[in-house]
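new request in #modeling-help
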Amino acid sequence: MNWGSAGEFFAMGGYAAFVWGSFGVTAACIVVEIIVLKARHRAAVRALPANSAGQP
Amino acid sequence: MTINWFRYSSPASFYPIAGRLIPWFFSAAALLMLAGLYISFFVAPTDAQQGEAYRIIFIHVPAAWMSMFIYIVMAAWAGIGLAFNTRLSSMVASALAPTGAMMTFIALWTGSLWGKPMWGTWWVWDARLTSELILLFLYFGFMSLQAAIDDPRRADKAGAVIALVGVINVPIIYFSVKWWNTLHQGASVSLMQSPTMAKPMLIGMLVMALAFWMYSIAAMLMRLRAIIIERERNSDWVKALKERQS
């Protein structure tokens, strides 16, 4: 076990900004990409031409 | 028994297959990421020289590996699309590019945050860093070129050419730390020799790399499905899809 307390864990031995800046931005990238991809798929389906029955 | 592989190379038949595969790849990515994060923070010991700052390695190295690997895969699919005129191959290449660019950005970003405390600088124009930045621009070039051409088939061909020419940059990135005197350290893990790092650190890195790999496949498949609908919007099967969903 590396950490005596939660505070120690978040402090990352004085490198908190660098370590959490790396992991945080990576997590944000992943979350944003998934949201963007879902939205793109939804938009693509919505933009399909109306079917023969003439509904919008 | 013969399997008709060409059946799966049509967008119409791959679309539902991709849909079924996505949850599996996402689940694998999530599980591996949880395991990787646990090893990164709770199993891997503090580094004797770098303290806790070295833990950036668990993101930095997998992202850098993926940035190069995705580029090669992207160029290969683009090349297959160019050579055999298969639409789906070119779509796969287009679906890989943004995720590859994201991995390149993460590698550069985490490298910068690692460089500041250890080297004393966010950025240097040395061979490794510069060639990785060029990789990011190659991804951007591929995407903007495709976006600039209205006819998707012509966009595929133009994109394939730039992707294939850009492949030359990947070995330059990989071997830059050997060929030139750089601030960036050499490879700790390579195919030719046993790794020069502690076991838990190595395992953590490999698990995270696998997680990024699974994630990249899932993201690529999601984007591929969107691209298929966008491009095949006038085909009967896509129209039928709309009717089923509404």
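bot summary: Chain B has a mean pLDDT of 91.
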